[in-house]
Specification:
Length: about 750
């Protein structure tokens, strides 16, 4: 639980700030209050200073009043939060009034002659009022954030009710009607949870949310075809099993989302991640290297026990049937070396402890520390090499999807015996992939990547049997179009997970090699009508691939420029940085398409990616427009001018991606135009990133300066509480009022 960010005060909000929006909204206020309560004790009392202090105090009081009005409106609409929100608003109003009274110093005579408490005579009172204001405003914001959580829970409940109705339908007509409602509810839920995912501060929660949303997105399509197959073949046991598995997986994913947003687990305490080898080695090295500063920071027995726990985990590698003899021998040898070096370290450590004057590591012990850390580092590198090598080989092996094609063909021929044979092969592949994901989890390098590995493992474990049951259904009903479509959908989910695994592998390598491996994930939201048949996808031939390759290389260079500019930002969590990373990542996928590599296999994939990229670009335009409102004329004109260029390029790309074409020549021309337009977007982004970074820094520095009377009047005029403002409940409806909760910084 977090109290006032100032570290004290009369009002403890008692709630933890879990989202970036609340945290970022509070940062300016925290900064100003910190400056206020640390001002010089002997501030020079000039008429100019006194007038400025009075203006600021009055402006703060008015701004608090408007902020509280929004909070009280939220309370009126939400009975369960009414008392808490009302108390927080009361405290905020009282603190604002106190600040106004303490800063009511219009003249030197009044300041010194009437004996009333002012900011000069009662610094303790000012500190108390400032802390109370910060604490109460925090409480209002956190409670407003609870409204968002309530919306997500309400949306989940609607989805669950409709899901149960879908599970019980007995006719196609009823199914179509209810599924249409279900699709709309899932779109709403996806948008709410997508916003929440991006807003969460905790990386592990973001990764878990991404995994749960990925399950829901893929299962929505599976649910459609599995349910239709069951309706078409009601007496088919394999079709029933297939359908039940999908519904069960969706329910589990919906439950996981609620656990994340409410920070609770239905079964009690939160389940901790199993400690990976990477995390174990990292902690082991920290303890060993800590001996340089103190011989008594940890016990010899604790270090020895931790090493043995690490050695036990390496058995996941050495006991695997898929680890080669040479790899097994190398791992065992490195484990023995690590044990020997650690044993030698413990001996020199104990000897150093026996020396009466020794408090720090001796030279002999320093050498043992270096050798121990080196040996455990060598072990980590070998385990990384084995896991990544295994994953790379499997991805190459399964890139042609021969087993899936054989299952489709056997099912379409009604050959149950062949389906059973290929099902055995797929089961073996599934076991290989599940075990490989487990090994990747050990060496992934970050907790979010560990969560992604666990999600991949679970996905392969579940989808494998679902493909087999779908193939069995098709073999029993070889002329059924819906059974064939159902098998296709599950096979596509398997292929999609293989693509996700390739991305995961790259991110793990990025972490291992010291590059950024924590890029924000992008998940496309389910869309109404996504289950409808689309235009047939096509692939570029060799000649077209060669022609487009040069254009792709230029796109690749631009993505590198974007990444370089993003790295220079101090605020890596800024919304503009997040969007630019997403745009760069998607553009890089388009570059890989021009090389015949990556996740985009067909022109249809490319056009969908282009459409989504343009949507992200338009979101970036919205952020740029917001930024421009905080700038002076010259800077504002520049940003608005570049924003118009970006908006035009995004709209052009969107039109291009959505325009249907027929014929080989027309499709190639559309590919060329899509990449050209994407280049145009990235060119503007590369130009804007350093400018915006500079302007945002400038805006931040100016916030710490004394605002002019005109500036305060403009702010007061821009924060009138309208009916529209009061209706937009939640954190965002309060953010604009937060801009006015700033204080005088002493010069």
């Amino acid at each position: 639980m977090a109290s006032s960010p100032c570290g004290g005060g009369n009002f403890d909000c008692g709630l933890e700030i879990q989202t970036r929006s609340v945290e970022q909204t509070l940062i300016p206020l925290v900064s100003q209050i910190t400056t206020l309560i640390n001002h010089k004790d002997k501030l020079k009392k000039t008429e100019k200073t006194l007038r400025a202090i009075q203006r600021v105090g009055q402006a703060v009081s008015v701004a608090v009043g408007r902020f509280v009005a929004v909070g009280e409106a939220i309370a009126a609409e939400n009975e369960d939060l009414k008392d808490e929100m009302g108390l927080a608003c009361f405290e905020a109003r009282r603190a604002g009034t106190a600040i106004a009274q303490l800063t009511d110093v219009s003249s030197l005579e009044q300041c010194e002659g009437d004996g009333r408490s002012t900011v000069f005579s009662d610094r303790t009172g000012m500190v108390k009022a400032a802390r109370m204001l910060l604490s109460s405003v925090t409480k209002v914001l956190v409670l407003a954030d609870c409204i968002v959580i309530k919306q997500i829970i309400s949306s989940r409940n609607k989805v669950l009710v409709t899901l149960e109705q879908l599970e019980r339908v007995s006719t196609f007509q009823e199914f179509v009607q209810i599924f249409s409602q279900f699709g709309n509810e899932m779109v709403e839920f996806a948008h709410l949870t997508g916003d929440r995912q991006n807003d969460l501060k905790d990386e592990k929660k973001r990764a878990r949310m991404a995994a749960a949303r990925a399950v829901l997105e893929k299962c929505t399509m599976m649910l459609l075809t599995a349910s239709k197959t069951c309706l078409r073949h009601p007496d088919c046991e394999s079709a029933r099993i297939n359908k039940e598995a999908v519904f069960q997986r969706m329910r589990l994913a919906l439950e996981q989302v609620i656990e994340i947003v409410t920070d609770t687990r239905s079964g009690g305490e939160a389940k901790a991640l199993p400690v990976s080898i990477y995390a174990g080695i990292k902690d082991f090295k920290v303890k060993v290297e800590g001996l340089r500063d103190s011989l008594y920071c940890v016990s010899c027995e604790a270090v020895a026990a931790q090493l043995e726990a690490l050695m036990e985990k390496t058995e996941d590698f050495t006991d695997s049937a898929y680890t080669s003899h040479e790899q097994r021998e190398t791992i065992i040898q490195l484990c023995q070396i690590t044990r020997q070096e650690t044993k030698q370290l413990i001996n020199t450590w104990r000897h150093a402890q026996q020396l009466l004057k020794a408090k720090e590591a001796t030279d002999e012990m320093e050498l043992s520390i270096l050798k121990t850390c080196q040996s455990v580092g060598d072990l980590r590198r070998e385990l990384h090499r084995v896991a990544v090598g295994r994953a790379t080989e499997l991805l190459k092996l399964h890139s042609d999807h021969l087993v899936l094609q054989a299952l489709k063909a056997s099912g379409g021929d009604g050959n149950l015996e062949a389906v059973a044979d290929y099902a055995g092969t797929l089961t073996e592949h599934k076991e290989q992939l599940v075990e490989t994901c487990r090994l990747l989890c050990h060496i992934s390098g970050t907790e979010p990547l560990e969560i992604t590995c666990i999600h991949a493992e679970e996905t392969f474990r579940v989808i494998g049997p679902q493909i087999i049951s779908a193939a069995q259904t098709l073999a029993l009903h070889p002329t059924s179009k819906i059974a064939k479509e159902n098998l296709d959908v599950f096979c596509e989910a398997w292929e999609s997970q293989l693509c996700d695994m390739a991305i995961l592998l790259k991110e793990i390598n990025d972490v291992f090699e010291g590059r950024r491996g924590d890029k924000k994930p992008y998940l496309s939201l389910p869309r109404p009508g996504k289950h409808l048949k689309t235009v047939k996808a096509a692939k570029l031939d060799a000649e077209e691939q060669t022609t487009i390759a040069k254009l792709g290389l230029e796109l690749c260079l631009l993505t590198s420029d974007v990444d370089s500019e993003v790295e220079r930002w101090d605020e890596q969590d800024h919304e503009m940085v997040r969007l630019c990373q997403i745009i760069s990542s998607m553009a890089y996928s388009m570059y890989l398409f021009t090389r015949g590599e990556g996740l985009l296999k067909t022109t249809l994939d490319l056009f969908h990616q282009a459409e989504v990229l343009s949507d992200q670009g338009l979101q970036l335009c919205h952020i740029l427009h917001t930024l421009s409102t905080q700038l002076l004329d010259e800077d504002r004109i520049l940003i608005l001018s570049e924003t118009e260029k970006l908006s035009a390029a995004c709209q052009q790309l969107q039109v291009c991606a959505k325009t249907p074409v027929q014929g080989k020549s027309a499709i190639f021309q559309k590919v060329d135009s899509s990449i050209q337009n994407t280049k145009g977007i990235l060119t503007v982004v590369v130009y804007l990133l350093p400018i915006c970074n500079k302007l945002i820094r400038k805006c931040k520095s100016e916030r710490s300066c004394l605002a002019s009377p005109q500036h305060w009047r403009e702010k007061q005029q821009s924060t009138t509480v309208s009916e529209e403002t009061l209706n937009g409940f939640g954190v965002k409806s309060l953010e604009q009022h937060m801009a006015n909760l700033t204080f005088l910084e002493s010069k």
